[in-house]
Amino acid sequence: MTVTIGPSSSPSPSTTEPGASRPKRSAASRDGTGPVRHSRRTKALVLGGVVFFTLYSLAPVWWLIVSATKNQSDLYTTNGLWFSDLHFTDNLKALFTYQDGIFLKWLWNTLYYGVVGTVGMTLVCVACGYGLAMYQFRGRGVLMGCIIGSFLVPHALLTIPSFLLFTDLRMVDTPSAIIVPSLFNAFSVYLAKVYAEGAIPPELLEAARIDGAGSTASSSRSAPA
Amino acid sequence: MAAVTESPSRAARLGWRRIMALKGASFTVPFFLGFLLFTVTPLVMALKESLYSEKGSGLGFGEKTVEFVGLDNFAEGFGDGRFWASMLRVGLFAVISIPVIQIASVGLALLLDAASQRVADRFRIPLLIPYMIPGIVATLIWIYLYSPVVGPLTPFFDLFGIDANFYGGELIWVSIGNLMAWSGIGFNMLIVYSALRSVDANVYDAARIDGASEWRIAWSIKVPLVRRSLVLTTVLSIIGTLQIFSDTMLFKSMAPETVTRDFTPIMAIYDWAFQQGNFNYASALSIILALVVGTASALFYRLTNKAPTS
């Protein structure tokens, strides 16, 4: 079946007239029920739109990569979107020898906080999201309300009280002041809950329960879904 | 995690349903313990702060005393013209930028959905790269791109005879909006796209057999089917946009005369808390902001849920 798109190439569906040239198509679409085959023009428009967005997404990153290979004066005098003299290794050397290689320490910190925080957060939040999605219990609505409500709290509000709290807990100036609070991410719980609702059919859990799997077993085995 | 251990006889008394409820609840215990300590506790501390005020005794010499002032900070906040001016500024920005970004995201998701599997697979990752770049780094990249000295954009617009000053009062919100679109479209597109993919393709085939055009299918079937995802991404955008802070803070370093210290509500709050050292008043303003954001999100949610589904 052939399908054509109106003259507007705007990616927004709201600005288009639905079915501007319908009669012609309705006749054409009666034959064949295989996968959709778009006309050449439609294909070109779709591809053009996707390419446009991709260029928009990648151009700034391209500029960043190109700039990383330049020295200070070339950065200001040459075309920002193309290479001139390559100084990439010099820049890398400057970066890694800056203050006796403090950048390596920063990289290590990022990795350490990132890995420990993410693994811990995933365990805590996926468990919670799973519990909220798969079980009915009293107070479930209130807990969901707390999670959604916490999205609204401006972080600026919590900064100073958090600092005072961490001082009381003797967490200030230790990695745990960053890592431990990051384990309890309300947004991750929300995502985990929504995803569990969509991805794990309740029948699967029923079957697992009938087969005698414990809750922890069924949560950890159905998690790959 | 606290395992539920019950003896068989007691278990029988409680009943299957009750045990399942306990098990479900126990999954949520670790998170909510941490949530209580690291979110609720500071929140309560801030609420308490907002009811107090630091007053200097005498002529500003002498010891400062902390007094309970009830809702005085809130009364002052509701009458704070500069704070509400920043709220209005960001509110207007949200009203324009969020629909534009959402429409672009849905458009992109529909394009990707209409493209062949091969094309979609090939382009999905590049389209998500801006989302993978941390917010501050994205802002820094664009600050350089906008820069009249280093950036390629000013000479580019010069070619068309347009004298674009991305840091001027007229264009500053366009610059910020473009930055938010650049970092946000990929994520929104992904959510909508995955919702589109989960739709049974038979629905489209049926519509095609009935003679619906691709535009018609996109507008009358696909968009309504992804409405829940759209509401989600829009509410998140409302919350994120009204609380915009780090982007404007970095823009301030480039355009201090355009981006003032109370350009956005959170910048005003930050200024009160850390520049003026009035944490009590800053807490009250934060609570007012949270109320405004909550009202806006709830209103949007209510409106979109009332509207007919198709």
Automatic annotation (TrEMBL), chain B:
Location of the protein in the cell: Cell membrane
Record keywords: Cell membrane, Membrane, Transmembrane, Transmembrane helix, Transport
Top-level lineage group: Bacteria
Keyword Cell division: no
Membrane topology: Multi-pass membrane protein
Domain ABC transmembrane type-1: 87-300
Membrane-spanning intervals of the chain: 21-45, 90-115, 127-146, 166-191, 225-245, 281-301
SUPFAM superfamilies according to UniProt: MetI-like
Pfam families recorded: BPD_transp_1
Similarity remark: Belongs to the binding-protein-dependent transport system permease family.
PANTHER family: ABC TRANSPORTER PERMEASE PROTEIN, DIACETYLCHITOBIOSE UPTAKE SYSTEM PERMEASE PROTEIN NGCF
The protein, known as: Sugar ABC transporter permease
Organism the protein comes from: Streptomyces phaeochromogenes
